[in-house]
Design a protein that fits this description.
The structure is a homodimer.
Chain A (H helix, E strand, L loop, with lengths): L12 H6 L10 H4 L23 H10 L1 H16 L5 E8 L5 H7 L9 E5 L5 H4 L5 H4 L8 E5 L8 H4 L5 H20 L2 E9 L2 H13 L10 H6 L2 H15 L6 E5 L3 H19 L10 H10 L1
Parallel strand pairs in A: 1-3, 1-4, 2-3, 4-5
Helix pairs in contact in A: 3-13, 4-13
Protein name (chains A, B): Polyphosphate kinase-2-related domain-containing protein
Pfam families (chains A, B): PPK2
Organism (chains A, B): Arthrobacter ginkgonis
Chain lengths: ~300, ~300
C-alpha cells in the first residue's frame, strides 16, 4: 500500500536500537507496537501491556527509573547540535479525547530539560493557516537541531477529523496522504527522527474518563459538549485512523499504536520509543574546539 | 531615580502574596531579595541564603516539596485562561556565565507541566532582529495567557553587554532604559506578571565553575574562550547590572537579586518568587459553561 514499507517484525533501525536501550521491556515497544504490513487497528487490545509483565506500581517505578536516561540522552543531543550535528526528534501524538496526550507530555517529556523540548499543541487552524497548504503551519513548528519536538495533534488532524466530518473533499484527503509521506521524508532527510504515536483507548474507557471530567470541578474546563458529538463518530474515527496509519507508515516515519487504557503503560512505552531513537542517533559529547590547558592558564590569570 | 519606585521594605503586591505562600521561608524572597530604593549590588552577599536557615539538604528537599504547588498553580492559571482570564507570568533570567540560569530552568521550571511553559533563550540578534528596534524580538516571545514564560537572557542584554562592550552609543543605551520601562508597563498592563531575576555569583565562584567546565569532557561544550574575555570585564558588568536594575525596577516589573553561589538556594528562591506571583494572581477553576447533569445523560447514551 503506497510506499508504506514498515513491517511488523522489527527489522528497522528502531529494532536495532532496542538492544542498547533499557532492559525493563522483554521486547521493546519499538518492535512490538510498530504498525507493519497488514496492520489492523482492531488487533490492538487497548488494555494490553505488550512487552511489560510488571504491575502498575512497577510501571510507575520504571518510568521514574528511566527519567535520567531520557534526560541525559537529550542533553547529549543538544550538545552535539552546538557543533553542527543536525539531528532532532519529533514525537507526534494523536489520539481520541482523554486518551492521555497531556499525560505523556507532563510525565514523559516533563522529565527532560525544558530547554531541550519544543512542545506545540495544534488547535483549529487560523485564517492565516487556512490561507496556506495544510502543512505550512506544521513546518513552522519543526524542532531545531538538538531539540525534541512534541506535537499534541498535528497534520494528521487534516486526514482524521477533516475526513470524518467531511471538511475536505475526498480527492483532497487522498492528496494529503501522499503529501504527508513526502513531507515526512523531507523532514527525516534533514536529520529529524520522527516517532508517530496513536494512543489507543477503548470506547468504554473514554466514557469513564469523560465522566470523571464531569464529576470533578477541577476537570470541568477540560470538557466540552462537543466531545460527546465526536464520541458518537467513534467507529468513523477508528476507520480514519486505520487508513491514515496504513497510508503513512514508512521507515522514515513509523507509526506506533500504543495501548492506552492503562496510562502507566502508555507512558513507559512512549518513553522507551524516545530512548530507542535517541540511542539510534547516538549523539556524542563534542570535542573541545580550544586547547584545554591553555584555557586553564588564561582562567587562572583572570 | 527615574520612575523606579520599587522599595526595599516589601509593601508591594508581592509582599502581600507572601502570607499565602509556603512557610519554608521565614520571610519570602519576594520581600528580602527585591531591589529597592538605594539598592547597592555590593550589599548582596552571593554566599547568603536570605530567609532560609536550613542546610543544603533541607534546601533540596524544600525544592521538591514545593514542586507540586508550582505545578498546581500553573495548571489553574492555564485553566482560567481557557475561559478568558488574561493572566500570564514572565520570568526574566539574567546573570553572568555559569551563574545557574540553566539550572533554574531545569530544576524549577522542570517541575511544571511543559504544556504550561514557554521557554526562550535569546542568542545574538539575527540580521532580521537588528533591522527592528531591540524590543521587537522580545515582544514576539511573550507568553500567551495561562502560560509561564521564561526568558534565558532578554532585552537586558541590550543595556548590559551592549553597554560594557560599547556596541551601542551612550545616548541609545540611555534611551533603552526608558523604553524598557514603558514596554514592561505595557506588558504588565496586559495581564502579565513580570519577575526579573539577577542570579548573583561571586567572581571566585565563577572561576571554580569555569574550571569545572574545563575539567569535564561532558561540560566542554558549555565553554568558549570568549567566556574568559567577558570575565575580565567583571567590574564593568557589575556596574552595568547596578545601573540597569536601578533604572528599571518598577512596581510593574520588580527586580530580585538572588544570591547564587549556593545553587540550591537560588532554586528555592526563584521557585518561591513564582509561587508568590501565582498566589497573587489567584487563578480559579472555571465554572462549567454547560449543564453537568445534562452532559452526564448525553454521555450515558453515547
Amino acid at each position: 500500500m503506497g510506499n508504506g514499507n514498515g513491517n511488523g517484525n522489527g527489522s528497522g533501525p528502531e529494532a536495532r536500537a532496542v538492544v542498547v536501550g533499557s532492559s525493563r521491556f522483554e521486547t521493546s515497544p519499538s518492535v512490538l507496537l510498530r504498525a507493519g504490513a497488514g496492520f489492523r487497528l482492531e488487533d490492538v487490545d487497548p488494555d494490553a501491556t505488550p512487552g511489560f509483565s510488571g504491575t502498575k506500581e512497577e510501571g510507575a517505578a520504571a518510568l521514574l527509573a528511566s527519567d535520567g536516561e531520557l534526560d541525559a540522552l537529550q542533553e547529549r543531543l543538544f550538545a552535539a547540535s552546538r557543533v553542527g550535528a543536525r539531528n532532532s526528534v519529533l514525537l507526534i501524538l494523536q489520539a481520541m479525547d482523554t486518551a492521555g496526550k497531556g499525560g505523556i507530555v507532563r510525565h514523559v517529556m516533563g522529565s527532560a530539560d525544558p530547554q531541550g523540548i519544543h512542545h506545540h499543541a495544534f488547535k483549529a487552524p487560523t485564517d492565516e493557516d487556512r490561507a496556506h497548504d495544510f502543512l505550512w503551519r506544521v513546518e513552522r513548528q519543526l524542532p531545531e537541531a538538538g531539540i525534541i519536538g512534541v506535537f499534541d495533534r498535528s497534520h494528521y488532524e487534516d486526514v482524521l477529523v477533516q475526513r470524518v466530518r467531511g471538511l475536505a473533499a475526498p480527492e483532497e484527503i487522498e492528496r494529503r496522504y501522499g503529501a504527508i509521506r513526502q513531507f515526512e521524508e523531507l523532514v527525516a532527510g534533514g536529520g529529524t527522527r520522527i516517532v508517530k504515536v496513536m494512543l489507543h483507548i477503548s470506547k468504554d474507557e473514554q466514557r469513564d474518563r469523560l465522566l470523571e471530567r464531569l464529576d470533578r470541578p477541577d476537570k470541568h474546563w477540560k470538557f466540552g459538549p462537543g466531545d460527546i458529538d465526536e464520541r458518537r463518530r467513534w467507529d468513523d474515527y477508528m476507520e480514519a485512523y486505520r487508513i491514515a496509519i496504513e497510508r503513512t507508515r514508512t521507515d522514515d516515519a513509523p507509526w506506533y499504536v500504543v495501548p492506552a487504557n492503562k496510562k502507566w503503560y502508555a507512558r513507559i512505552a512512549v518513553q522507551q520509543l524516545l530512548i530507542d531513537v535517541l540511542h539510534a542517533i547516538d549523539p556524542q559529547w563534542p570535542a573541545p574546539a580550544f586547547d584545554v590547558a591553555e584555557q586553564r592558564r588564561r582562567l587562572a590569570k583572570s
